[in-house]
Amino acid sequence: xxxxxxxxxxxxxxxxxxxxxxxxxxxxxxxxxxxxxxxxxxxxxxxxxxxxxxxxxxxxxxxxxxxxxxxxxxxxxxxxxxxxxxxxxxxxxxxxxxxxxxxxxxxxxxxxxxxxxxxxxxxxxxxxxxxxxxxxxxxxxxxxxxxxxxx
Length: 151
Description:
The chain is of the alpha+beta class. Helix content is 34%, strand content 26%.
């Protein structure tokens, strides 16, 4: 049975394992995986629930997916929005409908908590992920992602 739960510190190792799997697929991050930074970032999110939430997808008691939902505000929407990051379903779990179940739960969480939009970035070369997001109702924006690294 699949369930969606809030993550806690006890899931740090599972989340780092999943992030390693995710970052290995992403062109921007595959060469720079750093487990200490991953743990630090996850801990910050766990310690600041007003800024975001980490959700886990579990099959029975095994963690098979995760997502980072970062909270913000949109002047265009006139209210709270979510930046969806780090969405990953373990390789062994893919193709079973688990990703769709998880995404439906994420959208339900957003609606139930008064969020007005979910935005996400996806690796442009990951056709399978892009198709998944399109099938879940996400549409392309005319906006282009730009990044300035400060460290």
